[in-house]
Amino acid sequence: MLLPGHAPAREVDDSYTIGQRFAQYRDKFPGIAWPAVTWKAGQSVLFDRPYKNTGTRDLHIDVFRPSAGANRQGILLVHGGGWRAGAKTHFYALANLLAQRGYTVFLPEFRLSVEAAYPAGMIDIGDALAWTRAHAAEFDVDPARIAVGGASSGGQMASLLAYAGPSGLFGSGTERTAAALIDLDGVLDFTTPQALQFENAAGEASPAARWLGGSYEHAAARWKDASAASHVGAQSPPTLIVSSGIPRFTEGKTTVLAALERHGIAHRFFAFENAPHDFWLFEPWLPRVAEQIDGFLKTLEPARGSAPE
Is the CATH code 1.10.10.10 the one for domain 41-300? Predict the structure, then answer.
């Protein structure tokens, strides 16, 4: 029985959890540990703010607010889970560390492939970015200083939004422009031989195929369209790519970094050694991820205020 105002039941894939990954990695990575989330005085979190209605249900966003010393920068983080699973809660530990460094962090819910195929989820995160920009003053954030980022499939989505969003592919371009991109082990090109070896291995049953509405053999144009590397150009934002060191998860980075270099756009690539794919979830890698993000975004600030030589 549905209560008044409740949306109809929908399929949810809960196969990707932090506990499942910890059990998988525990014996492979000595020293791996659950992160201890501690709070500083003055921090606050706003849970489940509705930012959009899909026609059948509301989508929500969590906002991690810093204490005194906020830097007026926002970061929208898109969770991973093979485009069909995962949750915004997976970013709570990283969002907390970034908030302690002065950032306001936005964690959106979006439609996964078990509910709606591409480009629905992309439109959702584009709308989440637009909502964040529209509400920037409410959170004491400069709307021109909101970065987008994500991890694994969320990194792929964030990269695609950062590079293709301004063109209007997923909604009004002006509202979907990011100040910077942070890609944590997210594939940048679905169509390279290495990417296809993994992302298309199971044909129509591959997570990417389920999201994109067909295998590469049946939807090649869509696979290319959904590749961030197809859209990188002169208007692309400064980019940080953080890698586990496992090449398959950042396929396309060579093309992307070369294009950014050619256009004089700030970029940085950092790779861990002997790290799991989900490095942002666990100690000892989690604090270093926050350091990399903070360090990169800080390098962009002098460029904005400096006078031409």
Answer: no
